[in-house]
Design a protein that fits this description.
Two copies of one chain form a homodimer. Chain A is an alpha/beta fold and 494 residues long. Chain A has 17 helices and 14 strands. Chain A folds into two domains: 60-93 and 360-490, Aspartate Aminotransferase, domain 1 (Alpha-Beta Complex), CATH 3.90.1150; 115-351, 3-Layer(aba) Sandwich (Aspartate Aminotransferase, domain 2). In chain A, the strands form four sheets. A seven-stranded mixed sheet of chain A has the order 4-10-9-8-7-5-6, with helices on both faces. Chain A has a three-stranded antiparallel sheet with strand order 11-14-13.
Chain lengths: 494, 494
């Protein structure tokens, strides 16, 4: 709380009160782009596909747009939206900036300004191979030839789903999941996600809420077959988004064995692997396993967006032992290419072991821990249960008792209420969570903004609590909550 | 020829002779990536679509790869391939580098490292709007809201064809055309190019070889209908690639009126608009027209790849009055996003009017003119006819008399012979030219490389001439050539 305490609480309360009194423009997320050439609900200028693309403004993308358009700024827009809904690490800009403006970054070679290998320049892929070998504790050195680097994780999901799936195919994924994947895989490719639903209830064979098991995956696969959908691949995320769960090596091996038995490709997204901020936690990359069950069908993603606080740099890699997959991705690479100068800068960054290991990673972890401590402290104050993990940039919290009825309409209403009060957290609906009332809160924001954001959130919660009390009773949703989370989960006591 | 003369001719001849004697590794373009999991000719690890993508190594892409893998370097690989086949401007690296390492380029803001508007940061789109308004001589100021900036022209073609066409639709385009467009529009989208064939013969209603007319477009459209293919849009390129023709305002207006009559969108690619290097030539951007026939269906592309010698920076824009199209492109933008820091640097570049207008553009034009003069001088020496234009980075030359038979097999054989002799020019087949024997030669290479490349080319031509003479007669293809090009075209006398 040291860093947090620097922000004057009195001033903040005044600010929040002002905010509460001001006439708020309605930022509610219905703010879709205008349409000029309308036929029915469609534009007659676009193809059917174009209309489908244009109407695919998913919750997360629309929320991002809304918060960008009315972005909080301490001086220029103090009543703008503070975005602690989109997963970005905003705590380490000072470190990144300091490194990116160093003299070695300003080098330009002729080849950087020319067409190059669409898998990424060799020097970049070599840097990724070396970096991942070290940080994933790879069982043997990763090979440059087996890496493709594209402009962001979304592009990788898009390209991977194009080469692994035919139109109409499905990708099996456990809910809740990072919702933007839907757009990544479907916009160009007509591939769908097929959900394997987990539950907040701790049932037989599980010891934590929303725990993924092989049984859940098997059930998901069976359901897909019943619906006539061919599942081509399984998507796994470790550390998980939005749960922040870290799967153990044995759990991951079980999932990979399940995939092997069913001849499914596995896309393993380890994009938060360096954002584990407690020494008690151990992350095991799939690339560190002595034996990957089906290496030719296992493709591991990592990028700079989360672990290096650089979502705006658009750099992500995939490692695969399968040269056919790599070749196919290389063919698509020209549609997702990275500027040569950025490839050079990222190479400088990833090969600066000293800066990474003694400056960036320790500082980043300390700040993540501090942000996590602050947000969990407020949640405890408000008696809001949450999954108390020590990884990633967010936590998954249980707001069910603040829904007047246990419906997604109420969840969205609560969400919009937060947004109207200029704080954006992300509703469970955006993650295809099958139970209404869960929200993801980002804690990797700078201290002052995080404190103001949580203050705004607190204000909404207090109002809602009063309204619920005034209605003389607890809502049905609230009644269902008790017992779903054990004490370890609900108060984050570990 | 001043700059060219600095390279010692004696040394070069020695080098070429050495090259000729050495045991040449076969660089012939059959060098496709290896496949590991084969089912028939397909990989059983990939989907059908993945296999189709993987096997779509078009001539141009494969040629690029081949020349990258064995790239000429004066010191490190003197017997590598000199690539004057792929359209890149390599003459201005010194200018670009000097500008890109200036202090103003090293600025990093927090927003550059975060998710942003997928159309491009506002500051970038403002810079494009201002730049294009000035350089296109726009009839009224272009609007920031009507611009989308993505990572390269290929991505723009991909995104535009996705939103304007449904699977199976066609895009009408005159032959010869820049062949890589096929990959741009088809890899993800299942959209095809439908050719409107032009001819090297100057027939009634035309005054130059391969001249595009409305009649040709109408015939193309009729043929598409006969084949049951829905044409959604027309692609126009001005200055043209590979012909380097500059369409007049009245020609362009006729084409746009044709599109309007047939309710076709028009994608106008003006990516070479600033590479017009003779004061006698005037380029008229569609954006300068007082009246665009169908502004809601007219979409104008420009980018940094050609005019700013920066194909490796991956920056291209589209301007459209149609907000539906802009919105749909914005939705796809996250798959083709540009790093925020690059967006900032490009903004600095495009708004540096002084550098652009007094340093870069005049120097670039002078160098293009010099390169053009040098290559045309050699072609005249070799009695090789060519279209004598004064725009773009290349010229279109007639090698028909060097084909032993008038077939594409012979064209490819000649092409491979050039490559085996370490000079890459681009064969007409790569442009879907309907007559074998035409090649595109890039002249925007540095003086020493261009001279060595043309020397290697000359050597092949001399050998082929001797072989043809030894066969005691002219081939049928050669006999057909006479009279196809008038003296202005064949000797470049204008």
């Amino acid at each position: 709380m040291t860093q947090m305490a620097t922000f004057c609480m009195t001033n903040m309360r005044e600010e929040v009160m002002k905010l509460n009194k001001m006439t708020i423009s309605n930022d509610t997320v219905n703010d879709l782009p205008c349409e000029v050439g309308i036929k029915g609900k469609q534009s007659y200028y676009l193809s059917n596909r174009g209309n489908a693309i244009s109407s695919r403004h998913d919750i997360m993308a629309t929320a991002t747009l809304t918060s960008i358009r009315n972005k909080y700024d301490e001086h220029d827009n103090p009543y703008g939206i503070i975005n602690i809904g989109i997963s970005e690490n905003k705590q380490c800009f000072d470190l990144l900036k300091e490194r990116l403006i160093q003299k070695d970054m300003h080098h330009v070679e002729e080849s950087h300004l020319q067409y190059a290998d669409w898998r990424g320049h060799r020097f970049l892929r070599e840097a990724f191979a070396k970096f991942l070998t070290y940080h994933c504790k790879a069982s043997s050195p990763l090979k440059t030839e087996n890496i493709v680097v594209l402009n962001g994780g979304g592009s990788l999901f898009c390209a991977l789903s194009a080469v692994l799936c035919d139109p109409g195919d499905g990708l099996l994924i456990a809910t809740p999941y990072y919702g933007a994947i839907i757009t990544d895989i479907s916009l160009y490719n007509n591939v769908r996600l097929f959900p394997a639903h987990t539950s907040s209830k701790i049932v037989k064979g599980t010891n934590r809420p929303f725990q993924l098991t092989v049984q859940t995956l098997e059930k998901g696969l069976r359901n897909a077959k019943l619906e006539g959908i061919k599942i081509s691949a399984l998507i796994l995320m470790n550390p998980h988004n939005p749960l922040a769960d870290i799967y153990s090596e044995s759990e991951m091996t079980e999932f990979l064995e399940f995939a092997k038995r069913n001849e499914l490709h596995v896309i393993v997204n380890e994009v938060y692997m360096l954002s584990v901020f407690d020494e008690c936690e151990t992350f095991h990359s799939v690339l560190s396993f002595d034996r990957i069950p089906d290496p030719q069908r296992t493709h591991v993603m990592w990028g700079l967006s989360k672990d290096f606080s650089a979502s705006g740099l658009r750099v992500a890699s995939v490692y695969s032992e399968n040269q056919d997959v790599i070749n196919a991705l290389a063919t698509l690479g020209f549609l997702h290419g990275l500027p040569g100068t950025i490839q050079y800068q990222v190479t400088q960054l990833l090969t600066d072991e000293d800066w990474i290991n003694t400056v960036f990673l320790p500082t980043n972890r300390a700040r993540l821990k501090e942000g996590h401590e602050y947000v969990t402290h407020i949640l405890r104050e408000l008696d809001i249960p949450f999954l108390n993990r020590h990884a990633a940039l967010y936590l998954w919290a249980d707001f069910r008792k603040f829904l007047k009825t246990c419906t997604f309409e109420e969840e969205i209403a609560l969400w919009n209420r937060f947004i109207d009060n200029k704080v954006m957290i992300m509703c469970g609906k955006a993650f295809n969570c099958c139970e209404p009332g869960w929200f993801r809160i980002i804690f990797s924001e700078t201290a002052s903004k995080l404190e103001l954001a949580m203050m705004r959130l607190k204000m909404v919660i207090k109002e809602v609590e009063q309204e619920i009390q005034a209605e003389n009773g607890l809502c049905s949703c609230r009644q269902n909550v008790t017992g779903n989370l054990n004490s370890e989960e609900s108060n984050g006591a570990d």
